[in-house]
């Protein structure tokens, strides 16, 4: 992926030295834990927060070990189980790596931790997650990173990276954040997590969301891994339809890709291996999913732009229906 950077001032924020930056990582599931491990290994000051107390205790004791297609070990300097406990320190970046489904719930505490000077980064799946961050801290202090690696937690403090396909891409919500987005990308890149900076971050959001929404809901509904879906012709027919709908919705939203993009998407998904997407894990664990910022968001934009995305809408309703069933089970008169 080609990347570019706007040339703009840093919005009045204190410059941060990429050789010794301070990070707070909120959410240390697979994606956040990999980030924290690589940053800590590179010598940055890293604090992490997650509600999974045994996971946090293991990280506090032994650090984070990343295995799989990449390997790394890093030990954050501060490990806590609530976001509020991160307050009182001075961070260059507060990275939100929670599921998008809890973003509105965690942002008041994140905004408090960020104070008046930290940049807040959406390190999440889906379209427009940075809008909720901007609502709390202001668009000029909001960054977005499109992440192109994934993995799974295999034990407390241990993450298996299952793939790293392409470079991550960082960008800013407004030109005021361009210099900070560039420093963020350079810092991750130097730490070993290949990352570019782009002035067209929403284009990369669209691309990643098209990819996620083409496979993750199917895996979640069927219980199959990505490889198992790829090897099933009937499932791949649905995947191709979802890609086509996503491309049409993105085009209506103002984004085009060169010829061969559809084939690129299919090739990318084919490299996923026996990976279980986070949406699969959420359904299996009976947790709220990110379907609203994936298939649901594509369908909403398609509706608003006058194009059709019925397969995305169908999958979004099916996933939402499963989530609703968890509540209705416990309602009076339920099973």
Short recap of the structure:
This protein has 335 residues and is of the alpha/beta class. Helix content is 45%, strand content 17%. The protein is globular and about 50 Å long.
Question: How are the SSEs ordered, and which strands pair?
Answer:
Blueprint: E1 22-26, H1 30-41, E2 45-49, H2 53-62, E3 64-68, E4 72-74, E5 78-80, E6 93-96, H3 103-114, E7 119-122, H4 129-137, E8 142-146, E9 149-155, E10 158-164, E11 168-172, H5 178-191, E12 195-197, H6 201-222, H7 226-230, H8 233-252, H9 261-270, H10 278-285, H11 295-305, H12 310-328
Parallel strand pairs: 1-2, 1-6, 2-5, 3-10, 6-7, 7-8, 11-12
Antiparallel strand pairs: 3-4, 8-11, 9-10
| Class by alpha and beta content | alpha/beta
User: Can you write the helix and strand succession as a string?
Assistant: EHEHEEEEHEHEEEEHEHHHHHHH
Estimate the strand proportion.
15-25%
- Report the average pLDDT across residues: 91
**Spatial order of the strands in the main sheet?**
5-2-1-6-7-8-11-12
Name the shape in a single word. Answer: globular
**How would a crystallographer describe the biggest sheet?**
8 strands, mixed
Distance separating the two termini: 50 Å
* Share in helix: 40-55%
- Runs in which pLDDT lies below 50 for 5 or more consecutive residues are 1-18
Oligomer: single chain
Q: How many helical elements?
A: 12
Q: How many individual β-strands?
A: 12
């Amino acid at each position: 992926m080609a990347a570019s950077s706007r040339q703009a001032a840093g919005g009045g924020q204190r410059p941060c030295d990429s050789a010794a930056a301070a990070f707070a990582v909120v959410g240390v599931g697979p994606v956040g834990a990999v980030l924290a491990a690589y940053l800590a290994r590179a010598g940055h000051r890293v604090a992490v927060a997650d509600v999974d107390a045994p996971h946090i205790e293991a990280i506090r004791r032994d650090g984070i070990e990343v295995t799989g297609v990449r390997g790394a070990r890093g030990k954050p300097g501060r490990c806590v189980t609530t976001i509020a406990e991160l307050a009182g320190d001075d961070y260059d970046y507060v990275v939100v790596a929670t599921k998008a489904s809890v973003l509105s719930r965690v942002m008041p505490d994140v905004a408090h931790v960020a104070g008046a000077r930290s940049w807040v980064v959406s390190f999440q799946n889906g379209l427009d997650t940075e809008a909720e961050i901007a609502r709390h801290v202001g668009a000029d202090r909001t960054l977005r990173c499109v992440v192109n690696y994934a993995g799974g937690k295999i034990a407390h403090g241990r993450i298996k990276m299952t793939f790293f396909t392409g470079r991550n891409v960082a960008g800013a919500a407004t030109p005021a954040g361009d210099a900070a987005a560039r420093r963020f990308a350079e810092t991750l890149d130097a730490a070993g997590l290949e990352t570019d900076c782009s002035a067209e971050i929403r284009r990369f959001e669209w691309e990643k969301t098209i990819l996620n929404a083409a496979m993750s809901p199917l895996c979640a509904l069927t219980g199959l891994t990505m490889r198992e879906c790829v090897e099933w012709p009937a499932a791949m027919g649905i995947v191709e339809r979802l890609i086509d709908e996503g491309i049409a919705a993105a085009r209506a939203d103002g984004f085009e890709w060169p010829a061969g993009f559809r084939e690129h998407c299919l090739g990318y998904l084919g490299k996923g291996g026996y990976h279980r997407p986070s949406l699969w894990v959420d359904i299996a664990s009976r947790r709220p999913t990110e379907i609203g910022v994936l298939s649901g968001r594509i369908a909403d934009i398609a509706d608003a732009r006058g194009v059709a995305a019925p397969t995305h809408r169908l999958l979004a309703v099916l996933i939402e229906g499963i989530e609703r069933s968890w509540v209705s089970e416990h309602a009076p008169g339920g099973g």
